[in-house]
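look at this stuff:

>
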Amino acid sequence: MKKYRRIDRFIESAIYNFADWIGGSTWLGKERDCVNIFASRYILPAVSANSAITDYSQVRIECGVPQPEGESFVRPSAAKDLVVWRKPLDVAWDSEWRPKTIPWVVLEWKTRRKGSFNSMFDDHDVEWLTEFTRQNPESFGYAVTVDFCKSARLVHSARFRRGEMKVQRRLAMPRNANKKAK
């Protein structure tokens, strides 16, 4: 497994590898299942002293982070699907239990299991990640949608940086929808 020192390349490589696997498997899962498989199979094995993420404790599932400022975000913190912190054992909270520490990367996930949809990504996730990265320009955000609705399984991904959303060029990797899950 290739080791990346830049966090954006590290995360995007993991998303592409996950998409390759989903596109060629028969595995089915809901949002939390996808997040757990992604973290355990595509993030944690790449953690090393020579990669962007150097310690397992930098990676958290359903982790609290500070909310961006704005009318749409009332609570002081929000739980996010997958969070990567800059340093091992970082948490959002200060000594008064206020959310202060800003994470390095926030990933929001959605799965689609039936029906049809007008957009690739959840509107609230797009709004949140746009504002979060605009207000925290040293952080990255990713929206990932796993689409099980069609015969070819698709993984859509967008990167957020400094309030700008960029849909990734390599969105889906449906090699063979009939191939068995590994």
Q: What stands out?
A: Residues 3 and 38 are 16 Å apart (CA to CA). Strands lie at 59-66, 77-84, 105-112, 140-147, 154-161, 164-167.
